[in-house]
Amino acid sequence: MATDTDTGTDSSVSSFALKQWQFYLLTGISAVALGLVFVTTTLSARISGMRGQLDERQQFINESIVLSKLNVQLAQVLANLAVATSDDELKQVLWNNGITFSTDAPAGTNKAALTPGSTAGAKLREPTAPKQED
């Protein structure tokens, strides 16, 4: 077998051995790669959590849209009922909850038109009590 005269080791083994600077370089590259794996995993987990929060918010928005349509329909029915029955107490409840409506509908329909974007009934005067007939 041939031996390396400088080190006294087998030359076939020494050709595969890393020099010290090569060992440190590869160790450093491996450490950086491991660090990047850790960072990637952490960021992936955070993104997944954010995605879950975003999905929950989107679901809330979608459900709110459906409920707002139902609220408008309910307000419309209550306003129509208040106009049809001339119920001042129901009108007052609608005013207090910020639902304004007008009765400018064709004659004989007894329907109220909701005012879009009505804010609060605080600006509105209280409905007057029905007049007592003597």
Would you mind describing this structure in some detail?
The protein is built from three helices and two strands, in the order αααββ. The protein is mostly helical and 134 residues long. It has one domain (20-123). The protein is 59% helix and 3% strand. The radius of gyration is 40 Å and the shape is rod-shaped.
Structural class assignment: mainly alpha
**Overall geometry:** rod-shaped
Estimated radius of gyration:
40 Å
What's the tally of helices?
3
Quote the distance from N terminus to C terminus: 134 Å
Overall residue-averaged pLDDT value = 78
Instruction: Count structural domains.
Output: 1
Helix-strand pattern? HHHEE
Low-confidence stretches: 119-134
Strand order of the largest sheet: 1-2
Sketch the major β-sheet: 2 strands, antiparallel
Total DSSP E strands: 2
| Share in β-strands | under 5%
Q: What is the percent of helical residues?
A: 55-70%
